[in-house]
Amino acid sequence: MAEARSLVKDSTIYGGSTILVKIISWLMTPLFTYFTATRDVGMITNLYAYAALFSVILTFGIETGFFRFVNQAPKEKKGSVYSTALAIVGAIVVLFLFIFLVFLERIHPFLWDSRIPDSYLRMIVIVLSLDAFIAVPFAFLRYEKKPIRFGFFKLFQVILYALFCVFFLAICPRINQTHPEWIAWFWKENYSVGYVLISNLIATGTQTLCLLPELTGFKFSFDRQLAKKMLHYCFPLMLMGLAGMSNQVVDKIIFPAVYPDPENAMSELGIYGACFKIGVIMVMFTQAFRYAFDPFMFEKSKEKDAQESYATIMKYFVIVGLLVFLGVTFYLDIIKYMVVTRSEYFAGLPVVPVVLMGELFFSVYYNLSLWYKLTDKTYWGTVFSTIGFVLIIVLNIVFIPKYGYMACAWASFAGNGLIMVLSYVVGQKYYPVRYDLKTLFFYSGVALLLYGIAVFVPIKNLGLRLGFRTVLIGIYLTLLIKRDMPLSEIPYINRFVKRHRK
After folding, report:
1. What is d(CA 369, CA 107) in angstroms, rounded to the nearest whole number?
2. Residues 341 and 32: beta-carbon distance below 8 Å
3. Computed from CA positions of residues 281, 284, 290, 293, in that sequence, does the dihedral angle turn out positive or negative?
């Protein structure tokens, strides 16, 4: 019982801190959309899309590899596993720094838009290198069961980043209007993207300094044979992660290169990137689910009713996911002001329903992935991600010139939908789970019908429109309660009813 309590406590801290980090990062979008131009938001979107890909390459799956080998090593060798993992990531980071800092002028035209200054790229290269290097100490903190220290440093970094962004983007311009001499020595106008990157650099650099005890408080030893095993084990994980991440960010990378109006490409990407952030609400819901589902999946696999449990979880996961979809789209008139603060961004709001549904497809795909994880056929994850990646690239290249950022949203929708279907079909061969498809299609149909009614019934008054849509959500919840979730089966409500009956 004590071990179970400890696991729940640690999982809550790890999961809670990670989700809180994402929420704070998400809340930075209104700051960017209010205090910076759409072109600058587009540039930030493009730069961080590249950063997401490079981070997968730089960490190389070593975090997972570290856990794999440190748990197998005898006690006296555990320090060697840690230092070897650190040395591998350190070598990759040094090589990355050398290539991109020394040869940046030659590499720049092949990867990034020519209008992005080299100074921005140098800063993000350094940030990425620091982030990758400290990934191993963070893994070590998890291994040492120090969730509070882990969570504190994760939150500290993102809060520091947010505070510096607020200082540079919101406070400094006000000071410049009244007392420019106070900040003239370090601040200049029209450098908003640079200040976002400087804020990131300061926060990540400070976080790295805080982790010095984990970087110095051990005896270094490099095990060459272990390093070979680690690299062999981690390389497929890196490929799978790279393919999966590419599906999420490749549209933001491709867009400036294929959009027919180069002068407005970054501005259009900024509109898409900001509105895409609204769809990240679905990602946060999924992230919370993953922290609970991953350990449950492996633990439950040993029991006889495992497949029945997986099917039940999928049913309720989709039901709640559809409820999130309805909630965000129905109240978009309010939610939009939490993310996009200027009217020029509102043109991109039609991407939100498409992005939300595409993210739900990806979430279902993740849920379905249990079959190849439990059967040790993880190469299928790479196969599916690669197929989705190719489809998304092709659709973006073909349709962005004609349809702009709407093509990006629909390409992700199609790519994620395809890998979801493929994973289900192939999974039924290797690890058949009898998912309740009838119920899943029923609620999907109900949600789409209600969404269609909300969209095609014109109500100009905002209050009446939101009230009408609230009634529609009430219909969905009523169907859920009557069909699949009777109130008597909900523990707290059941206790309340029983108590008042007495």
Report:
1. 37
2. no
3. negative
Q: Reduced to 3 DSSP states, what percent helix, strand and coil does the chain have, rounded to the nearest 5?
A: 85, 0, 15
333-372 pLDDT per residue, tens: 999 988 888 889 999 999 999 999 999 999 899 888 888 8
pLDDT in tens, 369-394: 888 877 878 788 889 988 999 999 99
- How far from chain centre, in Å, is Cα 192? 24
pLDDT computed for residue 501 by the predictor: 53
Residues 294-314 have pLDDT tens digits of 656 666 667 777 888 888 889
C-alpha of 239 from chain center: 18
- Measuring CA to CA, which residue among 13, 65, 68, 15 is closest to residue 290? 15
Q: For 219-237, what is the HEC assignment?
A: CCCCCHHHHHHHHHHHHHH
**Which residue type does 212 have?**
L
54: Cβ contacts below 8 Å, ≥ 6 apart: 96, 128
Contacts of 147 (CB under 8 A, 6+ apart): 9, 10, 13, 14, 17, 141
Distance of alpha carbon 20 from the chain centroid: 12
- Distance of alpha carbon 299 from alpha carbon 8, whole angstroms: 14
Q: Are 63 and 139 in contact (CB under 8 A)?
A: yes
Kindly report the length of the chain: 502
C-alpha span between 267 and 42 (Å, rounded): 6
Give the residue from 242, 238, 237, 222 showing the smallest Cα distance to 86.
Answer: 222
Rounded distance between C-alpha atoms, residue 396 and residue 407, angstroms: 6
Residue 441: CB atoms within 10 A of its CB come to 11
Quote the DSSP letter at residue 190.
S
Distance in angstroms (rounded) separating the CA atoms of residues 84 and 70: 11
- The DSSP line for 195-263 is HHHHHHHHHHHHHHHHTHHHHHSS-----HHHHHHHHHHHHHHHHHHHHHHHHHHHHHHHHHHH-S-TT
Contact 184, 47 (CB under 8 A): no
Give the burial class of 442: count Cβ atoms within 10 A of its Cβ; 0-12 exposed, 13-18 middle, 19 or more buried.
middle
Place of tokens 């969570």: 151
Would you say 86 and 275 are in contact if contact means Cβ atoms under 8 Å apart? no
Q: Give the pLDDT band of residue 3 (cuts 50, 70, 90).
A: very low
Q: Are residues 341 and 33 in contact, defined by beta-carbon separation less than 8 angstroms?
A: yes
